[in-house]
Design goal:
Layout: H1 6-15, H2 27-36, H3 40-56, H4 67-80, H5 87-94, H6 99-116, E1 120-125, E2 128-133, H7 138-141, H8 155-167, E3 170-171, H9 172-179, H10 184-192, E4 196-201, E5 209-213, H11 215-221, H12 232-248, H13 250-260
Antiparallel strand pairs: 1-2, 3-5, 4-5
């Protein structure tokens, strides 16, 4: 490639408006003038953008939102939430005053859903709030491919999970002492299903692991917190009530059993 000749370089400068030799204006001043003066097209676009931005403001940021708008905002946030959100988190996302206002709005939304007969409502599980469908629609929802089926747990897994839920945090040796069998494999399966986790280590010889339940455990069983677990006294009272009804009227007791487990009244049930 041959280098630029002086004549060709002069034509390029003249074509693109660069100052030529002998010009009184300096090149720096001319470039600064061109850099600071926007074109008419740019001015037109900037004006249109400002108009669009001004037209998108429905309510000024300082103006308080009416309660019905707050309800709709809270409903929209819960609609796309993939996990339970605490009242404090909802208040922060929706711009509410405090968590109490978030709980009040959620209660108002549930009243609207119940009065209109919607198939869903806001439930408090795992320390937060989330949209959940009503239990009576579960047989139809399980026909969808992306909806998970029932979580089936063996008898040993249920026993181990119950011990961990009520006695946590506890050692594996304590679980085995209560059950009377080894729990290595059962604990491993429960941890794979994200129902049990290692929540610490005991400051003792060997520093053995301490086990506890997870947030998914609360979601799976529909519990707000561990305090929502049925206490032993309530279980004993329920068993005593069923025993008394069995002694008084066997037919009534059979109805209670069938409501608790519909398969119990079927002829082929085991």
């Amino acid at each position: 490639m041959e280098p630029f000749r002086p004549m060709r370089l002069a034509r390029v400068k003249q074509r693109f408006g660069f100052p030529m030799a002998g010009d009184s204006r300096s090149g720096r001043a001319l470039l600064q003038q061109r850099r600071l003066s926007p074109s008419p097209l740019m001015q037109q676009n900037v004006g249109a953008t400002d108009e669009n931005v001004e037209s998108t403001h429905v309510l000024p940021p300082s103006e308080p939102l009416p309660p019905e708008v707050k309800c709709r905002i809270l409903e929209a946030i819960l609609l796309i939430a993939k996990e339970p959100l605490s009242a404090r988190k909802l208040a922060s996302l929706a711009g509410l005053a405090d968590p109490t206002e978030a709980r009040t709005l959620a209660r108002q939304l549930n009243e609207q859903f119940d009065s209109c007969g919607h198939a869903f409502r806001i439930e408090e599980i795992a320390g937060g709030m989330q949209f959940l469908t009503r239990p009576q629609f579960a047989p139809w929802l399980r026909r969808l491919e992306h909806v998970k089926g029932e979580e089936l747990l063996s008898q040993g897994m249920l026993e181990t999970l119950s011990i961990v839920a009520y006695r946590q945090p506890l050692l594996r040796a304590e679980i085995e002492a209560i059950r009377g069998v080894s729990c290595d494999e059962v604990l491993r399966q429960l941890m794979q299903r994200d129902l049990v986790r290692i929540c610490g280590r005991l400051e003792d010889l060997g520093r053995p692991y301490l086990y506890g339940t997870t947030k998914r455990f609360l979601q799976l069983f529909g519990l707000q917190s561990l305090d929502s677990l049925p206490r032993a006294q309530k279980i004993r009272l329920a068993e005593a009530e069923i025993a008394s009804r069995l002694a008084a009227d066997p037919n009534t007791a059979q109805d209670i059993v069938e409501k608790a487990d519909p398969r119990a009244g079927s002829p082929d049930s085991t």
